[in-house]
Amino acid sequence: MTEIAVTSAPRDDSGINLERMRETAQRMLALARAGGASQAEVSCTEERGLNVGVRMGEVETVEATRDRGIGLTVYFGHRKGSASTADLREESLRATVEQACAIARFTEEDPAAGLADAALMATEPREFDTWHPWALDADRAAALALACEEAGRGFDPRIGNSDGASVGSGESLSVYANSHGFSGIDRDTRHSIGCALIAGRGEAMQRDGWYSVGLAEEDLEAPSAIGRKAAQRALARLDARPVPTGDYPVLFAAEMARSLVGHLLGAVSGGALYRRASFLLDSVGQRLFPDWFAIRELPFLPRGFRSASFDDDGVATRESALVEGGVLQRYVLGSYSARRLGLQTTANAGGVHNLEVAASAGGFEELLRGMGRGLVVTELMGQGVNPVTGDYSRGASGFWVEDGAVAHAVDGITVAGNLKAMFDRFEAVGSDVDPRSHIATGSILVGRMTVAGGD
């Protein structure tokens, strides 16, 4: 499946670094207690990465990064202060604690401020197979990127230009500790290869691309396969034609369907709810989707992009339904937003951990046959979504479908509706899951939306 040569494993110093970070976190907590804080929490992070970009057969960028940060939050009752540093020297740590304490003493009280309840802290740390360092140097990364672009540019003579190819590899270490006695560590890697190509000439040019991402080197698609797929996608967009304005079924390809789930998450997240800035206020227990639709959160997946045994508050994560039988089962809350709403945290401080949208249909071709006539969306543009009303209007491009098969490419169109109505009009979720995200969903068919075709 892949032509990426297996390289020798790099020297792994993550354990030593995590222990050092844990010691630093404990030192900060001790200083905060000495400074009079009733509660405190510390986050320590270290990241390093390599990214190489090429274009038209030449290396354009080589970027090596190494970042470190220590964030401290202290509480004096319900008053909160935060400060951060990247300096591990004792005098810097002391100054950071002093700054956080000084801020807390002068802030207004917030009844929702404070650590999550001690009884909710995670007690069973787990390993999720998310640590796979790649012994990648700049020369090897450049060779892979060049091979990817070359495969795409050589695929068809109509590929006349390139937006480039890139290879990236990153490692992240983190420690979270608080004055409840909780201390948790996390480490993960993320690697990627991508390519964007331009097909056609003059005003008829079209751009598209493809990428692969994984936690381990062996999870990546072959560079040549990525380049060829980028070329195929760009070529498929040539000879785009307008479509008549009207109301049609719209099939969001899997990589675009994630955005619909993202809008749901935004609307049921604690921050939007306690600010009264959501079109889904007071919606728990309501049917928002057809009765076959379901979403589950799966925080313990091996090699999951967002697997974790605790959230950003140290609260133990758990597998649970977000939507079941079309009914919203819960909100997405950290401890602060839960207190603001008078509810219990759902262990989602920092976001959700691996969502799985249940499929109700077969693959992409089956969905096309089922829709008959309508639009396939493969790209979305603009930010035309109102989180308060749910009104949805975005620029789009993709393909027009006639008699259950792709007829021609379309671009310069707009798809519009209201998210609440769109959710209710879901007709199918495909089995063609795009594995490149923590939101695992296939293509989603919406029974009717307004398509402004520019005809």
Q: Can you put this structure into words, describing what you see?
A:
Residues 132-238 form the Metalloprotease TldD/E central domain. GO terms for molecular function: metallopeptidase activity. Belongs to the peptidase U62 family. InterPro entries: Metalloprtase-TldD/E_C, Metalloprtase-TldD/E_cen_dom, Metalloprtase-TldD/E_N, PmbA, TldD/PmbA_N, TldD/PmbA_sf. The strands form three sheets. This protein has a six-stranded antiparallel sheet with strand order 3-2-1-4-5-6. It has nine helices and 17 strands. With 455 residues, the chain is α+β, with helices and mostly antiparallel strands. It has helices at residues 14-34, 90-106, 138-153, 223-236, 254-268, 270-274, 335-341, 364-371, 419-424, and strands at 39-55, 58-76, 79-85, 159-178, 183-199, 206-214, 246-252, 295-297, 320-324, 327-328, 355-357, 374-381, 391-402, 405-418, 426-429, 439-440, 444-452.
Q: Short summary of the structure?
A:
One of its GO terms (molecular function) is metallopeptidase activity. The protein is an alpha+beta fold and 455 residues long.
The radius of gyration is 24 Å
Q: Kindly report the CATH topology of the largest domain.
A: PmbA/TldD fold
The helix/strand class is: alpha+beta
CATH architecture of the largest domain: 2-Layer Sandwich
The number of helical runs is 9
Characterize the main sheet. Answer: 6 strands, antiparallel
Q: Beta-strand level of the residues, as a percent range? A: 25-35%
Q: Order of helices and strands, N to C? A: HEEEHHEEEHEHHEEEHEHEEEHEEE
Low-confidence stretches: 1-8
Shape: globular
Give the strand tally.
Answer: 17
